[in-house]
Design brief:
By secondary structure, this protein is α/β, with parallel strands linked by helices. It has helices at 6-12, 39-46, 61-74, 85-94, 111-123, 136-141, 165-174, 187-190, 248-251, 256-269, 275-286, 288-307, 326-332, 348-358, 388-394, 410-424, and strands spanning 78-82, 102-106, 127-131, 147-153, 179-182, 200-204, 218-222, 312-316, 340-345, 363-364, 374-376, 400-404. It has 2 domains: 6-285, Aspartate Aminotransferase, domain 2 (3-Layer(aba) Sandwich); 289-422, Alpha-Beta Complex (Aspartate Aminotransferase, domain 1), CATH 3.90.1150.10. The protein contains 16 helices and 12 strands. Strands 1-7-6-5-4-2-3 form a 7-stranded mixed β-sheet, with helices on both faces. Helix 5 links the parallel strand 2 (102-106) and strand 3 (127-131). The longest helix has 20 residues, at 288-307. It is globular, with a radius of gyration of 22 Å. The chain starts with 5 loop residues before the first helix and ends with a helix. The chain binds pyridoxal-5'-phosphate. Pyridoxal-5'-phosphate binds next to helix 4 and helix 5. Keywords: Pyridoxal phosphate, Transferase.
């Protein structure tokens, strides 16, 4: 365990200056493979008898620094960095569930995750039940013998629903299930889901962690507390010839999940994170708290100002008292409700599109968490693959606009919004 504070871990966690070259920055190890000392050493690495690097699809020294730093920032025991947020969610859940199994998920989800669950997982024979994250009775009613996980986002995308992590964790524990939480929107700076009972945390590192809109990546963090000898998870306790006739639980009770994720799904599906992208995420982590603090402050100013404009019919941001879960947000993320919010524009979908087309400074693109301010119309883009019924379930209305607030001076962003509103209303 690292006894340092968050900001110190963000700069130093998981790294010592390179002992050979004395390089202060983390080197980018662009190598596919690592030379074995001899054949016994090779065999021992393959059987997981000792730590070390074999092939960069499984592990890489640059990625290892990013992974250790993320685990420390989230308060977990280990993590596994992968090629995207989608890969992180897929690998985390496929480590738990197989054909015939089920997952219970809150329904307000990132569009890609919704599609992964509703379309791709169902083709693999894994059935995901989508439930209203505030209706705990119906959520618990969907759990049965085949259920392998409960999944939620900390702040639902894009309906801005705040997950009641302690309630979800209580239900998960009652049924011997791991709670898997997507912490992309809040980042470990604002919220550490493991501290509120989550078992596994996933991220799209593409967003606030990278922070500059430069690289796609994801990470899975293992909280290390889930009891895998639980009868729902026999595969964690089966002895495997590939790992020295031991089970993952025998190798490490604490890290069984992340070992299995890395050496089975990660190894087989091959969604490897490039060392270069890992290096970019390490740069991002160094300034994560400074950026997020400022972006939250800017979002707070802009959400309030937008709510006062006559052309705006509503603003949905957990940082505003008008949000139905404002107090729940204060409990889970007292330092701020993130930098993303949605709003509705009077005049409906056609006015919303004209408004976006009239912006000059704010970037119209499909991303969030960049240092620059970003805007999108979810119904016709990120959530367009969903049917109108599915859109309604995910909380996407036709006139909704999503804003991800960056580091620009809010005065300039507000001026851009005001001039665009003048042109379309
Ligand atoms: C972007 C995003 C993802 C997917 O991440 P990628 O890096 O784009 O694959 C998953 N969850 C949330 C909340 C996201 O914002």
């Amino acid at each position: 365990m690292n006894h340092h504070q968050f900001d110190t871990i963000a700069l130093h966690g998981g790294q010592v200056p390179d002992p050979v070259t004395k390089s202060r920055a983390v080197p980018i190890y662009m190598t596919s493979s690592y030379v074995f000392e001899d054949t016994d050493h090779a065999a021992s690495l393959f059987q997981m008898q000792e730590p070390g690097f074999i092939y960069s699809r499984n592990a890489n020294p640059t990625n290892a620094v990013f992974e250790e730093r993320m685990a420390q920032l989230e308060g977990g025991v280990a993590s596994f960095a992968v090629s995207s947020g989608q890969a992180a969610i897929s690998i985390a859940l496929l480590t738990l569930a197989r054909a015939g199994d089920e997952i219970v998920s809150t329904q307000a989800l990132y569009g890609g995750t919704y599609h992964l669950f509703a379309e791709t997982f169902s083709k693999f024979g894994i059935n995901v039940h989508f439930v209203d994250g505030t209706d705990f009775t119906s959520l618990e009613g969907k759990i049965n013998k085949r259920t392998k996980a409960i999944f939620t986002e900390t702040i639902g995308n894009p309906n801005m629903e705040v997950a009641h992590l302690e309630k979800l964790s209580e239900i998960a524990k009652r049924h011997g299930l791991p709670l898997v939480v997507d912490n992309t929107f809040t980042t470990p700076f604002l919220l550490k889901p493991l501290a509120f009972g989550a078992d596994i945390v996933v991220h799209s590192a593409t967003k606030f962690i990278g922070g500059h809109g430069t690289a796609i990546g994801g990470v899975i963090v293992d909280g290390g507390r889930f009891e895998w000898s639980n009868e729902r998870f026999p595969s964690f306790n089966e002895k495997k010839p590939a790992i020295g006739n031991r089970s993952y639980v025998e190798i490490s009770r604490e890290k069984a999940f992340i070992l299995k994720a890395r050496f089975e799904l990660g190894h087989d599906l091959g969604a490897t994170l490039s060392a270069f992208n890992s290096w970019l995420f390490i740069q991002g982590l160094e300034s994560l708290s400074v950026r997020v603090e400022k972006q939250v402050a800017n979002a707070q100013v802009l959400a309030k100002r937008l709510g006062e404009l006559p052309h705006i019919s509503w603003v949905n941001y957990p940082g505003l008292e008008s949000h139905p879960q404002y107090h729940l947000g204060k409990k889970y993320f007292p330092s701020g409700a993130g930098a993303i919010f949605t709003f509705g524009i009077k005049g409906g979908i056609s006015t919303a599109k004209r408004f976006i087309n009239s912006l000059k400074l704010v970037s119209h693109l499909a991303n969030v968490g960049d240092a620059k301010t970003l805007i999108i119309h979810p119904a016709s883009t990120t959530h367009a693959r969903l049917s109108p019924g599915q859109q309604a379930e995910a909380g996407v209305s036709p006139e909704m606009i999503r804003l991800s607030v960056g580091l620009e001076d809010p005065v300039d962003v507000m001026a851009d919004i005001t001039q665009a509103l003048k042109q379309c209303t």
